[in-house]
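Meet the record:
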Amino acid sequence: MAMTILADTAPSVTNNSTSAPSPVNGAQDSPLSTPVSAHSAVAAPQSVPADPPRTVVVVYGSGQDTIVHLVAEVLGKPWTTETSLSSLAKGSNAVVVGILAAELARSLDECDPSTLIVINTHCVDDGSSPDEALTDRCDYEFLYSHSPFLRRDLTRFLSLILGQTRPHEDLKTKTRTNFISTTFPDVHAALPNLDILSVGSDAVEIRVDLLVEPSPQGVASPVPSLRYVGQQVMLLRQHTELPIIFTTRCTKENGKFPMDDPMLFYRYLRRAIQWGCEYIDVELWLPEEIRRRLAEQKGHSVIMSAFHDFSGSWKWTSPEAARIFAESVRYADIVKMIAMMGQLSRALNTVFSPITHPLLPMIAAPGQLTAAEINEAMHIMGALPKRDLYVIGSFRATPQSMFMEKCFNELSLPHTLTSIDRGPKGTIEGVIMQPSFGGASVNPPISAATPYIPAVSEAARAIGLVDTIVVGEPQPQPGSGPQSSQGSGTTRTLIGENATWKGIRATLTRDYVPSAYRGRAAIILAGSESDASAAIYALRSLGVGSIYTVGFRATGPLAAGLEPFTSIQSVKLVEQPFVMVSALPPEKSLLVQPLLRHYRSNGRTSPRSTRGKVYLDLTASSGERKGIRWAWRSVRAGRRTGSTR
């Protein structure tokens, strides 16, 4: 029985903002609010990912045809290789088509390129670089090496260029975002400390103008080659899951790229879009035609318009500031305006504040602060009051809490994190009602109908469980007039959230794009409906087809469309599942093995390119649930390969 996906409705807890570009440093922020809806309709958590709208053409080099199969597997679609794209008009049902690089130019002349998404893939293991003329004829370019990161990087790349993941949509919901600017001449130098450098950052900027390409003659070129820059971007993507901001800063704005050839900037920024960089920094001084072309070609990348003035005479209140903002808005999603030094605006700004770090060889711009310095300044000004955070459960300490404490220290945050036992009835209520309460994770989760949590997210309402309690923005009481956030005229809203389903979804989409699950069968094993509810919600967000249950019968708001296994015969009649999720406790985990063996040998066969299967175990080895830390195993083409994330 096919599952019915309910139409999207407004979530219970939302951040409302205007659709205009987000201003940075000097432009006035759009107001944010967190209204809470009273409706209780169960809806899909977000739009179900759609299949690729066009045929994906994978251009590969001689002897590198395995990349075609890998692309098809990540997309969960059938594939073929052709010597000419004109054959696609003869009724081929392949969604992924591979073609040799030597055949591409002729093939594109024989077909309609608007029906294709052409990706030039190139393996750099042999030290070679892609043909730039060939890449210019393609929509995108994927550079790769045969490393443990390959499949994950390919999934991230495909998910972005197909619009199935939108990092900026998630970041827009945060009350504050920062990005770290790497100023190393070679990304290799940043890798040993990259995890430390990026703590507190929401994105990583690669300063292309500061890269120094090694030269056999010992004299570095003022502009690194596209070959070198492409491999640097590939290397950075392999070592961070944060979005990448691609920046080519000119000499006038404290960079090193020469300004005598604006088309040089276009070539590099256009290639960054083709490489699938999430953010592209486009300087306002560039000719309008270049900025317009980049905006038209950006795909699913986000353009940041950049303006810097280091003269010391520029005024935020001048008509010139309004004119610059209006011009920036025309071809950008985010507007960044920075004047000389600008330390106060860097601290007060809430949208993509650029930050530095003591481990960097140099600061990226005058006046740049570290995340710790910004937090200290905000705390001194009273804008970042001390909050008490809690880990509430049947344990005293976890790796998660120790990690959080290290982050607090690294970022100079004034908060404290305390682990406490669940205790008798009323313990949680007594903790969260304290004026200094800043949030809590709860393990095991509590009911979404708990009376002392006045608002819950749509996900928590549908799942029926709250594992995270957050504090919403203070809201003025009617007729109270303006008050401080600590004043009696404001109220804080406690919001119950469920983070477990997000962890499940994130794990499932590390090695497959979201649309790979669309319409595919799934099996969930659990001892009760409450144990399985987060997994059900996550799978529905991916648009899976039939969902079969083992060990429980669902009767709650998520029950529609679920079909229980009632006998061995019902197992035999079910199609080959694409994903199997176990929420069984460790002492019952062996019950999964017969099902895995059965479908590995007896399940209905599927096309070779779509035989990948995913097994996800939601229990930790210690026997206790650990938030969103999941062990997973991928089963592909009847062969099991394991990894722990």
Remarks:
- Residues 166-381 form a domain with the TIM Barrel fold (CATH 3.20.20.70).
